[in-house]
Design goal:
2 domains, 4 helices, 6 strands
Length: 184
């Protein structure tokens, strides 16, 4: 499986790593951040209850974003240099996940290819960008904080609960109108 990329190779990054000791040159520390934004439906409509997750890796002199998107029914890894860019009208919230992680950009690319969700049939619950990002953390030696996971789940469940409550209320109101008409 190939990564969708705005850059054909990560070989260019080697020039960026000029750490002061050999360890920094071989395996420079990076900071990993989780970028979250509302997802977009098929027609570009923002769905605020579901969050798209992208992982941003920053080595100081070079930074890149890795995430997974649905393409043709498959969960497809995506890579681009720099920070993630949200579609017009949407904004990312950012949470720092891990500092001083010792991985090379090539290790991140290899993990994206090895990720068990890469190429899986997309499923909004069990094979999505959040599952993919969590697996990236497992492969690279960091864990997404339960706060991010619970925040996304809590907001989704709250929205579903509100939607279900509104549906129940609407049905009760309709039933009441129907009973009133029958009594007339």
């Amino acid at each position: 499986m190939s990564l969708r990329s705005s850059s054909s190779s990560l070989d260019i990054v080697s020039d960026y790593f000029r750490g002061e000791d050999k360890e920094d040159r071989r395996n420079p520390p990076c900071t990993v951040s989780l970028y979250m934004r509302p997802t977009q439906g098929k027609k570009g409509i923002s769905i605020k209850i579901a969050k798209h997750w992208a992982l941003h890796f920053d080595w100081g002199y070079y930074n890149a974003t890795h995430d997974a998107i649905e393409v043709g029914g498959k969960l497809t890894p995506s890579f681009h240099e720099g920070k993630p860019v949200a579609p017009e009208g949407l904004e990312f919230t950012v949470e720092k996940i891990k500092e001083n992680l010792r991985v090379m950009p090539q290790d991140v690319e290899a993990a994206a290819k090895k990720n068990r969700f890469s190429g899986a049939s997309y499923n909004v619950v069990s094979a999505n960008c959040q599952n993919w990002a969590t697996e990236m953390g497992n492969l690279l030696g960091f864990k997404l904080q339960m706060g991010q996971v619970l925040d996304a789940v809590d907001k989704t469940l709250t929205a579903v609960g509100i939607g279900a409550s509104a549906l129940v209320i609407a049905n009760l109101a309709q039933n009441k109108r129907n009973v009133s008409k029958q009594q007339e």
